[in-house]
Amino acid sequence: MPFMDGAGRYRLTLSAEVEPAVHGWWAKASTARRKFADMVRQQSRRGGARVRLVDTVWPSSPPCQG
């Protein structure tokens, strides 16, 4: 399942059992938030899965986690 539509400032990471399993980068916040919400819904039944969305331009802002 690809999660890249070009490098951008918003980075999504899916970690399963502590190890990063999927990475994606998007330039648009709306795309990144939509992908984040989709991934949280898809992984909500999986124990140990963590989804994190980070704005890499503003590292002081807290990341979204699900």
Describe this structure in words.
- The radius of gyration is 11 Å and the shape is globular.
- The two termini are about 20 Å apart.
- By secondary structure, it is an alpha+beta fold.
- The protein has one helix and four strands; from the N terminus they run ββαββ.
- The protein has one domain (about 10-65).
- The longest helix is centred in the middle third of the chain and has 15 residues, at about 30-45.
- Helix content is about 25%, strand content about 35%.
- A hairpin with an 8-residue loop joins strand 3 and strand 4.
Q: What is the compact description of this entry?
A:
The chain is an alpha+beta fold and 66 residues long. It is built from one helix and four strands. The protein has one domain.
Strand order of the biggest β-sheet: 2-1-3-4
Helix content: 10-25%
Given helix and strand content, the structural type is: alpha+beta
Number of strands: 4
Classify the beta-strand content into a percent band: 35-45%
Summarize the helix and strand pattern as letters.
Answer: EEHEE
**Describe the biggest sheet?**
4 strands, antiparallel
Q: Rounded to an integer, what's the Rg over CA atoms?
A: 11 Å
How far apart are the first and last residues' alpha carbons, in Å? 19 Å
